[in-house]
Amino acid sequence: MSSSSFPPHAPHDYALLADGERGALIGPDGAVNWLCAPTWHDDAMRASLISGGGVYAVTPRDTWVPGGYYEDGTLIWRSRWVTTQGVVECHEALSFPGEKDRLVLLRQLIAVDGTAPVRVVLDPRADYGRAPPGRRTS
Known about the structure:
By secondary structure, this protein is an all-beta fold. The chain is 0% helix and 46% strand.
């Protein structure tokens, strides 16, 4: 499954995760559509927001209706999907790692009600989706 399976959304549909050194945008489908690392001003590793390659998505397998909210006073996002089989949440946050060249993206899945099969897609890319991980072209 490629990043084209997770197209961009309207700007108001994204949740922002941040740790003070970098930020990520999570779409309603559970895809990280934008993520620069190791800091805000570095190249994007996930750039599907601008039609770049690379994807990291946690999303329900069944038909779903999206929702979500921030935990009070935090940038911890709770993606919530009501599916045909149940309800599932993914608690998501960027945790400050203590090292400037390290990124810690936390994602915890919770079956709230019933069964809720999910799929996880990881296709890392560098240089705005143009290069395999670990290789920079600029």
